[in-house]
Amino acid sequence: MKKVKLHDKQFRLFIESENITSKIKDLAEVINHDFHDKKPIFLCVLNGSFLFASELIKRFNYDCEVSFVKLASYEGVQTTGKIKNLIGLNDEIKNRNIIVVEDIVDTGNTIYSVSEQLKKHHPSSVEIATLLYKPEAYQKSIPIKYPAIEVGNEFLVGFGLDYDGLGRNLEDIYIIEENN
Ligand code: 5GP
Ligand code: MG
User: Fold this and answer.
1) Residue 179, in any domain of the structure
2) What is the mean pLDDT of residues 27-56?
3) The pTM is what?
4) How far apart are CA 40 and CA 24, in angstroms?
5) Residue 80 pLDDT more than 80?
């Protein structure tokens, strides 16, 4: 069984790259069907979505645009530490069909905040495509229409996802070991 160590923690192989690619291909077929005439903008949330974004978007066979945004900690009076500003966004999304491309949706706090901020720019529609989705942890009501892979609540790394900065380059997805 393949294992990796990142910082102080051990991880073991969970989803092999061939399996990931095949799930992304399936998702791309659905998105091709739903968006062939919609000239969507794929709005990729950095950093975690970069590998998923490339594997997904290269399989979209119609006109589309690609853009990248990042979440930055809010530097205002509020000190909750939870509020994240979406940076890199402009009015190009007005009246457009947006597909947000995420690495993982867990509680949904991040994606909720992203979609609230997008709404202010008046897109025609916003849908969520995510490599990984944790339905048992999800606490929001906005639909996650395009998950590639549903998983449990364990902490995962690889294929763009990091543990404290490391592991994004792994081509497979790894799960944290229980005895860490
Ligand atoms: P949410 O706001 O949906 O609770 O969590 C989203 C963020 O939490 C993700 O963008 C990611 O940064 C982090 N996250 C949640 N679950 C995992 C996981 O299993 N592995 C990694 N590497 N990050 C996770
Ligand atoms: Mg993320």
Assistant:
1) no
2) 98
3) 0.95
4) 18
5) no
Residue 139's domain comprises 20-159
Residues tagged active-site? 106
The widest CA-to-CA distance across the chain, in whole angstroms, is: 50
Which amino acid is present at 2? K
Domain-embedded: residue 139: yes
Give the span between the Cα atoms of 27 and 8, in whole angstroms: 34
Beta strand residue intervals within the chain, DSSP E = 3-6, 9-15, 41-46, 65-73, 84-87, 97-105, 125-133, 146-150, 156-157, 173-176
Taking residues 4-9, what's their average pLDDT? Answer: 97
What is the position in ligand 1's atom list of the atom closest to the CA of 154?
19
Q: Decide whether any atom of ligand 1 lies within 6 Å of the 107 Cβ.
A: yes
Residue 89 scores a pLDDT above 80 = yes
**pLDDT for the residue 157:** 98
- Domain at 151, CATH number: 3.40.50.2020
pLDDT of residue 179: 84
CB of residue 104 inside a 6 A radius of ligand 1: yes
Supply 20's token pair. 């990931």
